[in-house]
Amino acid sequence: MRPWSYHNIISRSNIPEDQVIFITDCFSKDIFSCISYVSWSDKNCETAEEKIVKNTKMRYPLPERIGDPDLLVGREKEFRLLGQWLDLIPKRLGKSRAILGRRKSGKTAIVQRIFNRVWSENRNVVPFYFSIREKKIWYPEFAIEYYRAFASQYISFLERDERLVRNPLSLDKIREYGISESPDILAEDVNMLLWNRERELHDSMWEIAYTAPERFAGVYDQRILVIIDEFQNITQYIYRDKACKEKPDETLAGSFHDVVESKIALTFLISGTGK
């Protein structure tokens, strides 16, 4: 597959260019020093970061690909810049952002650390992390995989159960939780996913999946931080035909255009590899 240009990633994600962070070449253990090149216009970042560092006991529900999480200890000074942005999200002031860079420049480690920070803080921001793999997948299976990941991480946040981030629940288990614990929307979504799958209404399945974070945030008056890693793969590895032999669907990135700048519910953080 031909890699996307940075311009393609920015235009397809619908995130304004002034909200893009470019990660220069750097070693994984030193990735947060790269963030110091970014200029942020908001104020009081030191106060926000000090609050996060002092009050948060870090947990790692999402294993960080950098390896030993202790390798990132001591980077709080650089992380203040992102801490400031995270602090704005509950106030509905944090704009969606994109992190772009070449392979192995540290993007994934950054977004995984952000997920773990937000999950650990346990405030009114629910984090959702999804990595689009370099692996061919049939369109309806991708929709179910995306929804299972979101629903499991949402339940994980509510129940403070780290295991559900690493091991997503089946659709049946998600429905059972929705029925027993009262987030009725979970059971309704699963029923509609299965109903649409039976009738081969695959676009409707994907709509249920990608709109879930916005719908949940609106119903339960929450903010949800949607983190999509390796965003460029969404146009290269998802196929309409079950055998995955025809051309991949290049239109799916456009699904997020209407929700990426939600003023009520969502903040997106998109990571992409380009050239």
Structural features, described:
The chain has 275 residues and is α/β, with parallel strands linked by helices. The chain has one domain (6-273). Helix content is 43%, strand content 13%. It is built from nine helices and seven strands; from the N terminus they run αβααβαββαααααβββ. The protein has helices at residues 6-13, 45-55, 76-88, 107-121, 139-159, 163-166, 171-181, 184-198, 202-220; strands at 20-23, 97-101, 125-131, 137-138, 223-229, 238-239, 266-273. Strands 1-2-7-5-3 form a five-stranded parallel β-sheet, sandwiched between helices. Helix 2 crosses helix 3 and helix 5 (139-159) runs parallel beside helix 9 (202-220). It is globular, with a radius of gyration of 18 Å. The model is unreliable at 23-50 (pLDDT under 50).
List the SSEs and their pairings.
Layout: H1 6-13, E1 20-23, H2 45-55, H3 76-88, E2 97-101, H4 107-121, E3 125-131, E4 137-138, H5 139-159, H6 163-166, H7 171-181, H8 184-198, H9 202-220, E5 223-229, E6 238-239, E7 266-273
Parallel strand pairs: 1-2, 2-7, 3-5, 4-6, 5-7
Helix pairs in contact: 2-3, 5-9, 7-8, 8-9
